[in-house]
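lol ok so funny story. i was supposed to be doing the assay writeup but got distracted and ended up predicting the structure for this chain instead. priorities right. anyway since i did it might as well share w the group, maybe its usefull for someone
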Amino acid sequence: MGVIFRIAWKAIIGNPLRSALTVLGVVIGVAAVVALVMIGQGSTSNITKSLESLGTNLLTVGPNFGGRNQGGGGGIVRTGDRQSVTMKDVEAIQRQLGSQVAGIAPVSQGRYQIKYGKSNLNVQVTGTWPDYATVRNSAVDKGAFFSKADVDGRKRTAVIGYGIAQDLLTDVDPIGQKIKLGGISFTVVGVLPDKGDAGFANANYSVLIPLSTFQKRLSRSSPSNPTVSNIYIQGPDQKTLKDLQNTVTELMATQHEQTDPTSYDFQVQNQADALASINQVSQTLTLFLGGVAGISLLVGGIGIMNIMLVSVTERTREIGIRKALGAKPRDILTQFLTESVVLSVGGGLLGIAIGLGLANGVGKVLNITPVMSPSSMLLAFTFSVVVGVFFGYYPASRAAKLDPVDSLRYE
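and the output, tada:
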């Protein structure tokens, strides 16, 4: 076997350019599979961490702007629908389910100009309750969160995001400083930690103020029953979250005097369901892209077969001489099959190395941390070996069947 391997290796390195071009398809295929799977799993991990960082065991109650609803969103959008979740819903949940939940945080939101000195930014302003700090994982890094007394007294206190503190209040201690939101003066009582860049929901450029102040001073909602954008409810644990979702849905249906689940004007979303859906979509996309990349492995296998057929034709006299010296057909079959497998194995290993480098490079550009997947690497490598055996067998078999007399006469 050692002799056969040495002969195969000499044949491969004897034509380095042709050998390199032969394995190019395998290299590209394996590298693409490894890189795409790592980036895909990294994206899924980032999305999952981002959602979990916004709160755990979370239910979100909000208006349903769609058609059919089964406790979640979706359907055909009906224009003209109004906000349907109000403070009376919040009070009912707090009154009837207060002992069953870890926290409740209604929110109203809008974009406003924040001004400090001569500088200003356009930011997301959220009016909410003190429970928001725990429900949405928004404990302050400096200062303190506003209190229930601030909400009851409609105080003009504000908790600002890390980015706002860095950009607007660079050279001063933010705590105690006066800022203006929509032309109204607020006192900064706390600063949130750096949440990172979360795109459209960048918490570093958000301001939290008491809900009553937001409704009275900024949105100027109806004093009798003001609407809210969402109600965030934190369950005591993951096991009871589904039951709590059903209970909240029933309570909201009673509050809104609705009996048909397909026409609810509200929706109760479970964070766990949202995470599962996102993960499923991401995994499906990753598998699809990995499958597309796998096609190039098949193309690489065809390339190996074509070159091996050319090699058999070029080395017909060599085959005849070996057979004349006593080589058996299985020896010739093993030699050419070994060459094919060595090419595919080498291409697979090189592809894994390139895939790792490519994943890390793309991850830095897209700000994604690739997740190494040993199973995908093993699968891609195994597939490359199978490709080498499968597409190398026919040329090897053809070489083994050559007649030694005709081979020696071949020019």
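The beta strands are 58-63, 103-116, 119-128, 142-143, 157-160, 178-181, 184-191, 206-210, 230-234, 266-270. Residues 271-314 form the longest helix (44 residues).
back to the writeup now i swear
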